[in-house]
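seq as requested:
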Amino acid sequence: MKALFFKQHGDLDVLRYGDVPDPVPGPDEVIVRVKACATNHLDIWVRRGWPGLNLEMPHWCGADVAGDIVEVGDAVSGWKTGQRVIADPGVNTRIDPYMRRGEASMSPGYRILGEHLRGGAAEFLCVPADNLAAIPDNVDYAEAAAPLLVSLTAWRMLIHRGRLKPAETVLVVGAGGGVNSMAIQIAKLAGAFVYVVAGSKEKAEKAMALGADVAIDRTETDWSKEVYRLSGNNGVDLVVDNVGKATLQKSMAVVARGGRIVIVGNTSGPLTEIDVRYIFGKQISLIGSTMGTHQDFLDVIAMLWTEKLKPVVDRIIPLKDGRRAYRMMESGEQFGKIVLTP
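struct tokens:
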């Protein structure tokens, strides 16, 4: 089969489009013919690599997959060939105390498609049957694939880890990424007042269209001072900061006393200096989060299928041109998700 793969970690030039071995299903697995696979910043981090990430090469990314079942394992029941499906990108590989407490993504055995396991940036995907969910007839493949990882991540980040409450104020730092486009919608659905920091006037307008109450173009003003002023010099209750190095210090300045900052990424870099006086002086909490449980996944897709949440697709690009998609992501050109089609 064809895939967008790499044989060693590195920059964009290590990506190749070509032939890789076809997957073979285990007894509890299915083979899905990929019709759409959305890109994520996770793909960029995996391709670049980090200490301790040991992958079987060649590797291909792609956590968000929609397609058709073409083969089922001997022990699979309830699924048959031809069904239109999506896959929960979080794969549970063990039963441990984290799993039993309903904290699957904290388990050392938790795996993510495209990160620890070969993903959907290929013609076929092998995935446990327990990870599947059916696609409604009125939803196309690109719309089904685009919001999966980011919706799951944003839901856990805001609702479970951030413990967002109605009438609280939320600041989303960055408007163009997939997680943040869903965070805006989920925060509004939860009854929050939402500020957004955008990288351009156009992205600010798009953030407003998603439901943001205030969108600030960071190229025109100092966003942290502006948010602080607009909040009556109180700051905001909850900050979503997935940018990291370039913004975390300002996020700590603008969060309210006793407020929370939730972090699920680091698009500007993983290492930064922190003024710890903000932490104890304002009694703020820095909260890490990643992914979610399979029940979270089912809850989120129920909201997607009923249009309480809407997928944000920037554009659709052929898989063979996938390097162009990641170049756009690395330069921050997109708003929402870029979807690859084999």
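The two ends are 10 Å apart (CA to CA).
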